[in-house]
Amino acid sequence: MTSSAALERGRAAYAEHRWLDAFTALTDADGERSLDADDLDRLANAALVMGREAVGLDLAIRAHEAYLRIPDGADPAARSAAWIGIYHLSRGDMAQSNGWLARAARIADDGRLEAASGLLLIPRALGALNGGDPATAARTFAEAIRFGELHGDREVTVLGRLGEGQARIMLGETVAGLSLLDEAMVAVTAGEVSVVASGIVYCSVIGTCHLAYDVRRAQEWTIALDHWCGARPDMVMFSGQCQAHRAELYCLHGAWTDALDAARAAQELTRRGDWSAAWGAWYQQGEVHRLRGEVGEAEAAYLRANETGFAPEPGLALLRLAQGRVRDARSLIREAAGDVDPATRRQLLPAVVEIELAAGDVGAARLAADELIAATPADGMPLMQAVAARAEGSVRLEEGGATGALVQLRRAWALWEELDAPYEAARCRVLAARASLALRDDDSASMELAAARAVFVELGATPDVLRVDGLARSAHEPARSRTPLTRREIEVVRLVAAGKTNRVIAGELYLSEKTVDRHLSNIFAKLGVSSRAAATAFAYEHALI
User: Fold this and answer.
1) Among 141, 114, 290, 153, which Cα is nearest to 204's?
2) Angle at CA 156, nearest 5°, toward 154 and 158?
3) What pTM was computed for the model?
4) Which CATH superfamily is domain 376-476 in?
5) Dist. CA 101–CA 500, nearest whole Å
6) Residue 414's CB: how many other CB atoms inside 10 A?
7) Residue 251 above 80 pLDDT?
């Protein structure tokens, strides 16, 4: 039969990535005469890319059934069933996913289709990856790569490299993992795979780069994704994820208004069909509101992120800390950092350090900082080194080692500056000011606080401005009110002066008696005293009461 004009227009538009035109023309052609399997597949892809999920899945099923009716259609039928199963797997629709993947496996087995079997390794490997078994996932993805290369199946090869790269990074093999991701991206940017596979690789690679602390790679691929989406203006799928990634980068670089705009754009695209963008869209909005001190808005955004099935951590835990709900913050971050893969835990450890220090448990903070440092190679990503150096500096400061803390904090500040991350750099300056005060270097402390305050004011980080102002006031107090004690040690000595026993102090500060004993030992050593009475006298003499 001759092709209709609508069909030819639809095929041409599809080849040129004009999804709306392709969808409209192919739908018209389908109304004239039922499309064949390949054209139904094109129409299904156009619908899915435009965010019309229900229509796209119905068309994908029609394409699958059409393949089954034609000679030599077993291989594309198996592949289409596998893709439908993978789509449902990504949605969390496990019953439907299992059904379609089982159908794909049966068709492949009946027809002895080894090539189709390669694609079926991808969801099997994803199951291991999502189930917390990256080692098995890495082996299965590697097997998929071998299948793809053997049968010339570029999509299986690319998806295999993507998955193995993610698994290697989760196993702590960052360099090998990133190399695999780069290789997958080369195939995508060369246009060697379909639009759906390309979008999956783009978004997954960027997310994994953030997980690996490789902000430069994440930025490079986000720019590429932005251009890719921009060249396909009708595309909804993947466009929302692109906006969420942009929001994360804007937030890091201090462009908080732009971050909010990108997060809201991602939310709108989520409503239009790019459901994978939901968590990032709401989480990044929550982050900006938290940093600005807009507690209600931050909490609402984090709770919306939580509705996607993924915990809004460490953001929500840090919000609880900002609210003074230290026990809740501690519970949230400990739960989130519990049974997770090494890469995800590494992302949460900086918040663990911050929250444990706020809770007065310097020992727990030290363990988390040591774990973070052990996971950070000397030639690791600058972002990873910056995070580790700040964690080490903040713990040393609370341990009473102001000199060593200052070295680490200045190194962290330089790294954050290099990364163009003004908020994080300013936070390091505040910690450096505290270390300078402990070393009686008032001039350096004042300069650090002034520089940090200017950044916080420009960003609109109101809570940090207030904290800096409080520190600045204490820096200008009379010398007799200065003390080498940490904030937690001051709390302990005040309660000692009030006549509280160690057990009562432990109850009021939510600490163990052993931790209170340790704080008292540190207090006695720093003050050069040997009794509670002498510590009380120091507290009154230095206006701590």
Assistant:
1) 141
2) 65
3) 0.83
4) Tetratricopeptide repeat domain (1.25.40.10)
5) 66
6) 15
7) yes
